[in-house]
Amino acid sequence: QAIYQLVSDAVQQNQKLFVVLIDPDKCSDEKQISHFASLLNTTKPDLIFIGGSLTSESTARLIKHLKSQCLIPTVLFPGNAIQFTPEADALLFLSLISGRNPDFLIGQHVVIAPAVKQSGIETISTGYILVESDQTTAVEYISNTRPIPRHKPQLAAATAIAGELLGNKLIYLEAGSGAKPPVPAEMISVVKKSISVPLIVGGGLRTNEDILNALNAGADIIVVGNILESTPEKMVEFAKTIKSFRNQQK
Ligand code: 1GP
Questions:
Q1: How large is the C-alpha radius of gyration of the chain?
Q2: What ipTM does this complex have?
Q3: Measuring CA to CA, how many Å separate 18 from each of 110, 116, 194, 243?
Q4: Beta-carbon count within 10 A of 166 CB
Q5: Quick check: 55 pLDDT over 80?
Q6: How far apart, in Å, are the Cα atoms of 214 and each of 35, 123, 144, 209?
Q7: Which atom of ligand 1 is found nearest the CA of 229?
Q8: Taking the CB of residue 17, how many other CB atoms lie within 10 A of it?
Q9: Residue 233 Cα to ligand 1 middle (Å)
Q10: Which of 89, 216, 242, 249 could form an S-S bond across to 18 if both were Cys, CB 3.0 to 4.6 Å?
């Protein structure tokens, strides 16, 4: 459980973590991957998440390529069972607990469970909570589930508590990739106070201010993906913001 240990140790010491999300569908060209890998080497985020809403045949290739060029651990963040590959260092075994679609609560998991177990990959049970945004996001559309209303932080907290009681080791508050706006600060804060496992926040974080709002509200782990597809260089700036927030906490 090396990756989970890294995360829980950091969170216990109140050290915020920075995760860069790469969607294999949007980063498949070798030149693009190499450019990204060199930025990752300079920036040194804590983890790389790999995944997307659609199935991509290039997931394993992307991970192999990244691993040959940088040492940052890779964690699969799959949109469905077919995206599973044992190439990654760990797998977020996500259950979409804000939704009521059994396929994303347990169905996809059953399909892939024997292969996951056989591979020996580190598996981290994660309660995935989709939060309403202004527009329909890909997660909402593909999963055919209703997100939690933005103005109902208590519903998000109750969902997160249920996830923790069911054994989730991480809770992920997700607005959806490219969401506008991101998860509300009040919801992050109410959820954080309700759980004792690490809290991941992602979806539509595109500025330093967005990141600081999420950190101040209590996010332990910040995930940024979409904005880095158009401006990968922002990774450096975001890493600095998170690092200086960490130092202020000491
Ligand atoms: C999406 O939480 C992640 O699943 C990250 O969101 O792509 O909007 O940064 P963005």
A1: 17
A2: 0.97
A3: 30, 26, 22, 9
A4: 11
A5: no
A6: 28, 26, 27, 9
A7: 7
A8: 20
A9: 17
A10: 242
Q: Domains in the chain: how many in total?
A: 1
The amino acid at residue 203 is: G
Q: How far is CA 72 from CA 24, 65, 103, in A?
A: 17, 12, 32
The CATH number of the domain where 138 resides is what?
Answer: 3.20.20.390
- Which structural domain, as residue segments, surrounds residue 60? 2-249
From 174, 201, 208, 242, the mutation candidate for ligand 1 (largest count of ligand atoms within 8 A of CB) is: 174
Residue 247 has pLDDT above 90, yes or no: no
For residues 214-220, average pLDDT? 98
CA distances 65 to 21, 38, 72, 85, Å, are 15, 12, 12, 14
223 lines ligand 1 (CB under 6 A): yes
Q: How far is Cα 28 from Cα 32, in angstroms, rounded to an integer?
A: 7
Ligand 1 binding pocket mutation candidate from 83, 177, 206 (most atoms within 8 A of CB): 177
